[in-house]
Write a structure and sequence with these properties.
It is a single chain. The longest helix has 20 residues. The chain starts with a helix and ends in a 14-residue tail after the last helix. It is mostly helical. The protein has one domain. Helix content is 61%, strand content 0%.
Length: 124
């Protein structure tokens, strides 16, 4: 897994309302577009500065497309980046249906099998 590349995706998409909205509604297209364009940019995003050696694995791509935060966490994606992006995507919908903090409770419940264990490494 390219922990860096997955974390870069989570960080960049979470910070941009347009990307976040596209990721919520059309994750297949957004992940493909990000990997082909935004993910290859270095530094401050200058299109002239690109990398060609980074890419998502099939498992990473699938987890991102399916919003599978448990799989991402277990592959080593940073827990806080996973939590914040999926709060941004789901919190309003969950809060309307189930009340405040309902998504955060689900997130915790789905990762509860990690209680008392060492977290997957987030080291590069």
């Amino acid at each position: 897994m390219s922990v860096y590349y997955v974390n870069k995706f989570l960080y960049q998409v979470d910070r941009d309302p347009g990307l976040l909205s596209a990721y919520k509604v059309h994750p297949v297209e957004l992940v493909a577009r990000w990997e082909a364009d935004l993910g290859t940019r270095l530094g401050n995003g200058d299109p002239a500065e690109r990398t060609t050696w980074l890419s998502l694995t099939d498992a990473e791509r699938t987890a991102l497309v399916e919003h599978d935060y448990v799989a991402l966490f277990e592959m080593g994606a940073h827990f806080f980046l996973c939590l914040t992006i999926f709060i941004a995507i789901y919190d309003d919908d969950y809060a309307l249906a189930q009340g405040p903090l309902s998504f955060q409770r689900e997130y915790a419940a789905k990762l509860s099998h990690w209680l008392g264990k060492d977290y997957p490494t987030v080291a590069l």
